[in-house]
Amino acid sequence: xxxxxxxxxxxxxxxxxxxxxxxxxxxxxxxxxxxxxxxxxxxxxxxxxxxxxxxxxxxxxxxxxxxxxxxxxxxxxxxxxxxxxxxxxxx
Length: 91
Known about the structure:
The protein is an alpha+beta fold. It has a single domain, classed as Double Stranded RNA Binding Domain (2-Layer Sandwich), CATH 3.30.160. The protein is 41% helix and 23% strand. A three-stranded antiparallel β-sheet has the order 1-2-3, covered by helices on one side. The longest helix has 29 residues, at 2-30.
C-alpha cells in the first residue's frame, strides 16, 4: 500500500507540471496581463456522449466575465496545436 502512494504522488506532480505548462501557454497565446488568473483542470465526463477525459481551462480577468475553454482530450495528451485551436474562439 505504501508504494502505491508514492506512485500517486508522482502522477499528481506530473499533472501539476503539465497544468503549469498549459497555464504558461494560455497566458502567452492570449497575451494575458499579470492579474489574470488561469485555471486548468482535467475532468472525467460521465455522460456517454462525452469523449471521456477533457481539459477545461478558465480565464479570469478582473472586471470581465470568466471565459471557459474545453479541449476534448486529457491534459497529458494536450498538444500546443490543440490548445491554440481551442483558444482561437477567444474574442
